[in-house]
């Protein structure tokens, strides 16, 4: 019996060692790598800029507000700890929701260092509203920012990665890209589309040696809900309780860094309840639908006609 237990323990130890070696081999050293981050002027994008800058990456910070991007760049430069060789970030200003501008923005991005090693599609907008009260233009606007913008930028950068046979594309999706909850239709739809597109992309570019990561966090303590749009296009302006008690954006940024370094393909960062809901949607959809209908009634009674 002791010999059997000893053999089992030895086998388990060997498997753990092999797994550790495999993980170390897959890890990517980010020193001097060119990393593009969209939505880098605030929230999760700003935190990603901090952790990738600290890892020695050559950052290209993207967003709509040049002044705020420059402030982030200046802050990163002043906070360098000296332990790692860091680089002054470049900034490229453009509106991701205006896909007609993305091609020229991608050209400017590529001119910064001649290539891109890692593209992090982070920029996005949230939505709060009842479908009955939401104009179709709002649905389109959210899709432009959360789906068509990242797709356009990815497809503009992708040929240069394919040519080099090297590159990593990451996208910040959401748990709501895996399950939908009431009064988030535009947001959930954009994240579902994002998950599907980048899953397809991963399969299609595998033969070129490219990596694709989809990171799906739950609620994060940022101003996402405050800046969300409503059904008529107005600013929501409320910090939801779920957002206020969400994950620390610095912790989520470190998860993004880990996903890139370890070349993880699909990462869900959520608590026990959202994770259980994802499995429930797959294994027992009828129960999931009943729970969501109950939640919809509790949060806001449907508009009576």
From TrEMBL:
Molecular-function GO terms, alphabetical: oxidoreductase activity, acting on the CH-OH group of donors, NAD or NADP as acceptor
InterPro entries: NAD(P)-bd_dom_sf (IPR036291), Sc_DH/Rdtase_CS (IPR020904), SDR_fam (IPR002347)
Keyword annotations: NAD, NADP, Oxidoreductase
One GO CC term, this protein: cytoplasm
Taxonomy, superkingdom: Eukaryota
Protein family per UniProt: Belongs to the short-chain dehydrogenases/reductases (SDR) family.
Function: Putative oxidoreductase.
Protein name as catalogued: Dehydrogenase/reductase SDR family member 7B
Organism (species): Danionella cerebrum
